Amino acid sequence: MIAIGVPAEGKDEPRIGLTPETVKKLVKAGAKVTVRSGAGLRSHFSDQDYKDAGAGVAKSDADAVADADVVFTVRRPELSLAKSIKKGAALIGMLDPFSDAEGLDALAKTGVSLFSMELMPRITRAQSMDVLSSQSNLAGYKAVVDAAAAFERALPMMMTAAGTVPAAKVFVMGVGVAGLQAIATARRLGAIVTATDVRPAVKEQVASLGAKFIAVEDEEFKQAETAGGYAKEMSDEYKKKQAALVADHVKNQDIVITTALIPGRPAPKLISKAMIESMKPGSIIVDLAAERGGNTELTKPGEIAEHESVRIFGLLNLPGQVPVNASSLYAKNLLAFLEPFIDKDNKTLAIDWDDELAKGTGIARDGVIVNEMIAERLGGKGAAKADPKPARAPAKTGTAKQAGNGRKAPAKKSSAKRQPKGDTTP
Ligand code: NAD
Predict the structure, then answer these.
(1) Which of 70, 69, 81 has the alpha carbon at shortest distance from 8?
(2) What is the C-alpha separation between 130 and 334, in angstroms, rounded?
(3) Sequence-ordered list of residues with C-beta below 8 angstroms from that of 179, at least 6 positions apart, any chain
(4) How far apart are CA 129 and CA 400, in angstroms?
């Protein structure tokens, strides 16, 4: 029988990778599930809820993971926790693969197999496992709700006997998963929404959500999307033209939501100090790129900065502020990833290391780092490759290739390119 253990997260992380709903499914699939007492409380899942779903509740993290074949976490855990996990077990979570390679190497040396969900190839088969999408979608929503709450005016137009309240103007910069949800949310709240991106593919998506697309649409723009569906770093000439357009537009906006990212690079700076100074007092910027340095010159990651009565929200972990939904979706992502690796007959863990999803997300096996990008960052230390020993029939087909150069491992998309999620109802 496969055993699954779930420890508590650190104090800054309200989410959890297990819900009563996923416990039921795991138990049905033949698993024994143990969760650390109180671990779900910040997502409003009580110990009793887990027990009712069929899980055991352990008094300590070490007890929760001691017998586990699979440990689910949200964040990269402390080394001490990994030492409590038995060798050869799989630790699956958002392990932050692009920072602190030495820390990952130390985790790897415990002999636990590490899987980092951020590296999930973006192919059709892995849609239900895509944690970046499930979490960014909520971040896009929360960014708009936060902005609306802080904005000291109303968003929708209101015609009353006492006069007319004008609709607020919201500008969304970067129309990936988070940007699409931000547009949809701002539209629902009645704002007049404009949006920009460097990828031409988003133009129609923006229009379909009832917003207006604005961008520098030159020859470079037409080529700005990589084969993996991500943005390229734009030329200095393009950046200048884009800055002129943004400067002209931003001064008339009430709320700006920035989400622009380029895999493997710092977030592009799209809003200068001068642009912020041109905005009306009371305007709000929410910078979802804060974790990667921010899209504005004045973003302070983790803080709400204020400059000339414009507030710039650089708060981190927005999905963690909607923990009930974020945990539910994240736990389903984990379940969807694990299910194919449970041997249906023996009910044991059977990771197929030749499977592209295991290859894409797997960063350590048998004590060594097997992800090339992390191994390179370690300067060859711990870079040895483990023997591929598929534990079950190998390889489903697919086309994703992990290039290992960015937060979002650029994956070639399979033929059925995923539709963007703007107005998604998970
Ligand atoms: P992201 O978080 O990497 O970037 C956010 C947005 O910022 C992107 O739309 C990008 O084009 C834009 N951007 C980058 N530089 C910019 C600049 N200088 N100015 C303006 N905008 C800029 O993106 P994401 O949310 O991960 O989505 C990237 C793509 O992946 C999208 O096409 C999305 O639909 C697609 N996607 C595919 C799958 C799948 O097929 N499995 C899953 C999720 C997302």
Answers:
(1) 81
(2) 9
(3) 140, 172, 173, 195, 197, 202, 257, 259
(4) 14
Residues 296-308 have a mean pLDDT of 97
Using alpha carbons, select from 134, 131, 122 the residue that is nearest to residue 96.
131
The pTM score is 0.88
Q: For residue 136, what are the CA distances in angstroms to 236, 288, 316, 326?
A: 28, 9, 12, 10
In the block, residue with structure tokens 């409590």: 84
The residue behind tokens 């390229």 is 232
Strand ranges (E), 214-283: 255-258
Q: Using CA atoms, how far apart are residues 41 and 182, in angstroms rounded to an integer?
A: 28
Catalytic residue list contains 230: yes
Helix (H, G, I), strand (E, B) or coil at 336: helix
List phi, psi (to 5°) of 384: -60, 145
Phi-psi region of 420 (alpha: psi -120 to 50; beta: other; left: phi over 0): beta
Residues 362 and 371: their CA atoms lie apart, in Å, by 7
Ligand 1 neighbours, Cβ below 6 Å, are: 122-123, 127, 130, 132-133, 136, 173-179, 196-199, 229-231, 234, 259-262, 268, 270, 408, 413, 417-418, 420
304 vs 291: CA distance, rounded Å: 13
In this structure, what token pair is assigned to residue 142? 């929360």
Q: Which of 105, 102, 127 is nearest to 114 (CA)?
A: 105
Assign 344 a pLDDT band (cuts: 50, 70, 90).
confident
Residue 87 and residue 107 in contact, taking contact as beta carbons nearer than 8 Å: no
